[in-house]
Amino acid sequence: MAGEDVGAPPDRLWVHQEGIYRDEYQRTWVAVVEQGTNFLRARIQQVQVPLGDAVRPSHLLTSQLPLMWQLYPEQRYMDNNSRLWQIQHHLMVHILLDMLQKDPCQKQACEIQKCLQANNYMESKCQAVIQELRKCCARYPKGRSLVCSGFEKEEEEKLTLKSTSK
Predict the structure, then answer these.
(1) What is the domain count for the chain?
(2) What is the C-alpha to C-alpha distance for residues 55 and 57, in angstroms, rounded to an integer?
(3) Which domain holds residue 29?
(4) CATH code, 164
(5) What is the rounded CA–CA span in Å between residue 77 and residue 86?
(6) What's the pTM?
(7) Which residues contact 79 (CB under 8 A, 6 or more apart)?
(8) In this structure, how many other beta carbons lie within 10 angstroms of the beta carbon of residue 110?
(9) Each residue of 118-163: pLDDT tens digit?
(10) Residues 25 and 77 in one domain
(11) Which cysteines are joined by disulfide bonds (predicted)?
């Protein structure tokens, strides 16, 4: 890691687990898709995350986040599908105390990941741990938890799909 600029944005990010990426220096980053934009935008934050084995791309839950990003000019990133993203790097925006603290619902998110891995990614077998994350997310205001912002968006998408399929 000699020569690493800790404050510099990563040149490349590879998915390790749902919403968690590793860069060229093996630093871990949490990524969340920004809501309500007309173009692709994500917020990334460098966070030390205890990682297990990397998840195979075919086992990732449905996500708007790509498998890989590469830095391009003007602080934009191109993903593995040749789409350009605006990435808000943790040092450029929202340096808030609560963003620097540990995510309050990280433990529940890790429990879901363990359950899914143990049950061949069958969500129906992990409803109890998913409910624990719902309870945790309900205790905090929107934006307080990166884990919850991604989880809540996924829950909304499931409800939308369910209502349109009726």
Answers:
(1) 2
(2) 6
(3) 10-101
(4) 1.10.287.1130
(5) 7
(6) 0.51
(7) 40, 66, 67, 68, 69, 85
(8) 18
(9) 887 788 888 999 899 889 988 887 777 777 877 776 777 777 777 7
(10) yes
(11) 105-136, 115-126, 137-148
